[in-house]
Design brief:
It is a single chain. The chain is an all-alpha fold. It has one domain. Helices cover 73% and strands 0% of the residues. Helix 2 packs antiparallel against helix 3, helix 2 runs antiparallel to helix 5 and helix 3 packs antiparallel against helix 4. The longest helix is centred in the N-terminal third of the chain and has 27 residues. It starts with a helix and ends in a 16-residue tail after the last helix. About 3% of the residues have low confidence.
């Protein structure tokens, strides 16, 4: 499979793409841990379980499809990260204003991981590499000489 081959080539990626992927993985893992801890350990129902499962599946897909090394995969991961930020940034500020400093700092650190992944995935080095990597290959056709008649 192409994704597995691309995963094995990870050390050869540009630094910005490597950082974007690492921050993407870290952000989703941190988010999963926060959801699990808030739903099961704290019993706070941060998210209904069905929504949490859907987001976990979306995060796992984002972590896999980024290794397709296609521009659409990069854009999809960026959009997914933005959607999560739209959801958890207001919750972070509400928790902070309600005096829940520890929980709001945990969410703020998760926000920063998503923001860093977006930053590195949007960098020009990553964009140029993925466009070069996904550029259609020119087909080499044998040249024919025209006969002069």
């Amino acid at each position: 499979m192409q994704i597995i081959e691309n995963f094995q080539k990870f050390p050869h990626y540009p630094l910005s793409l490597k950082r974007g992927i690492v921050f993407l993985f870290a952000a989703w893992i941190w988010y999963f841990l926060f959801i699990l801890s808030s739903n099961f350990i704290l019993s706070s129902n941060f998210l209904p379980f069905e929504i949490a499962i859907r987001q976990m599946i979306a995060g796992a897909l984002a972590c896999v499809i980024i290794f397709a090394l296609k521009n659409w995969a990069r854009v999809l991961c960026i959009l997914g990260s933005v959607m999560v930020l739209i959801q958890i940034l207001p919750i972070t500020f509400v928790l902070y204003s309600a005096g829940q400093f520890f929980v709001s700092m945990l969410l703020l650190s998760n926000d920063m991981l998503f923001i860093l992944s977006i930053y590195f995935l949007c960098s020009s080095e990553t964009t140029h590499y993925l466009k070069k990597f996904t550029a259609p290959r020119e087909s080499v056709e044998p040249k024919t000489e025209k006969e002069d008649s």
